[in-house]
## 1
Amino acid sequence: MKIFLDTANLDSIRKYNDMGILDGITTNPTLLSKESGNPVDIMAEIVKIVKGPVSLEVVSTNTKGMLEEAHRLKKFGSNVVVKIPMIAEGLKAINILKKNNTSVNCTLIFSANQAVLAAKAGASFVSPFIGRLDDAGQVGMDLIREIVQIFKNYNFKTEVLVASVRHPLHVIEAGKIGAGIVTMPPDVLGKMIKHPLTDKGLASFLDDWKKVKKANPKLVI
Ligand code: G3P
């Protein structure tokens, strides 16, 4: 399972990148709007920090504008993945970008049919938004199950990038289904690291070691 961070926060990206657990980054205009500083500079910096794929989203809603933005975003680095929304003009843009060997992440996927069409147009990644489906009273993970099954049935090469992840259980469920990538906010990744029994166990090991040190003050490991 590949782990992506869904953020434009440079401190979080550096923190988790240094742990060697990040396979890539996804951003969107909302995430960029939460950061102070020039969003274009932030995007360029993220691409420099992370070696894996970095999804940067277009904001045009017509094919021509999307292609122009894609052209500029790609200049940040060879690991840029252009994020294109799942609309008819977006599918046209994906088809052209695929022919130019540009990697595309098709975003705002809420049905298996949309995922199939994005894959057929040439997207390298599809991003189904499971948390937003959960919020709307649908089981988001059912969509992941459907897409993974259909892509497997037809040997589609497009990767399923589980997005709009809200908690660590989403990550486990996506992994059990066999989705290739899960992108998550920094707080979810932080929660994956922690377990109360780990903290309790470490405190007890350190307490016991203090007793050993008391008896042998010169002891060094
Ligand atoms: O990157 C897009 C997606 O992950 C957004 O998540 O929490 O805004 O639904 P959310």
## 2
Amino acid sequence: MSSNTISIVIVGYGGMGSYHAKHLIAGNPRLKVTGTYDVLPERQAASEQDGYPAYASYEEVLNDAAVDVILIATPNDVHKELAIAAMKHGKHVICEKPVTIYAKEFEEMMAVSEETGRVLMVHQNRRWDEDFRIIKAMYDKRTIGDLFQIESRVHGANGIPGDWRHLEAHGGGMLLDWGVHLLDQFLFMIDSKITSVSSRLSFILGDEVDDGFDAILEFENGVTAIVEVGTTNFITLPRWYVKGTEGTAVIEDWSLKGRAVVRNNEVGKVEPKPIQAGVGLTKTMAPPSEEATITTTLPAAFEHASSFYDNFAAVVQGTVEPIVKNHEVLRVLNLIENIFEAGRTREVIKDFDTYTSTK
Ligand code: NAD
């Protein structure tokens, strides 16, 4: 570490590796990308062109005493071996998600972090997404009462992207790719044990890995989470749809378009007027009368104490706890394994959650 600047080498200079360099680390005064390593000569050339010197081999990175941190942004199946070698050579590690395909592999990485005293932090960056932080504020502050059903969806229509994401051996598939983010958000928000999980995996596109999935998680505190990832959705459902004891809220998309509708407790019970619905008449499904509800904007988002990278730098300097904790990451990987199992067997799975209260 030269003075206060932490030197980072990015291993895997593809889509995400280069995004880290140009958008996430650039501009942070405490961190500096001092080089990259990629197995592909064309990605090494791209790195040089972007102004980041390319190392000729991983050994060269490992043996360079000037390197403080190795950031791993390769396909998922090689994260573990690269991370363990890095920590054994005295480097701190940031690893992309999903950190490993199986929980057991991450346990091995955690053990090496313990042994070597090197920081190991997983880039679960979507804990910082504003749409999620708004839902977390609603959950924590009970702005529409107690949330009892939270539906989180990401829908695309472009199938599985790229090359390695189509292959099981590389840890491809959408449950590992996007599921890990949505599930991490739920477990970060809801401080309660998961009592059961059921799921369906989608193989519409004929890949050997899932092109999407849906899962229902039930928590001991009464919350139900519905999680869905799809890559064959030409019309999308809202990013979030949440039901609370006092109202309902929706966030349509990443532009944060949305609203909450809550019961107006100032007026007494208002009998709805029957409406024509299809060939029938209904009062039950009539929209609430205007005076019975209040439509509001969404609340201000929950704020983390710092950004991912400011937190990482402070963790390396030994001044704070990581926001993304390894036992939380491990819990998500265990959940993913059980969602795969529930999808394959079509059984509801119970008694698997490794939850310990954070309170
Ligand atoms: P990519 O295919 O664009 O890039 C991967 C790069 O790694 C390629 O250039 C490849 O040549 C290189 N590589 C492969 N094996 C290597 C090895 N052994 N040593 C060095 N380089 C190697 O993939 P991507 O989309 O950038 O994904 C990379 C990682 O980042 C994955 O784990 C993915 O899940 C993660 N990711 C995270 C986010 C996020 O928001 N957190 C977004 C996208 C991708």
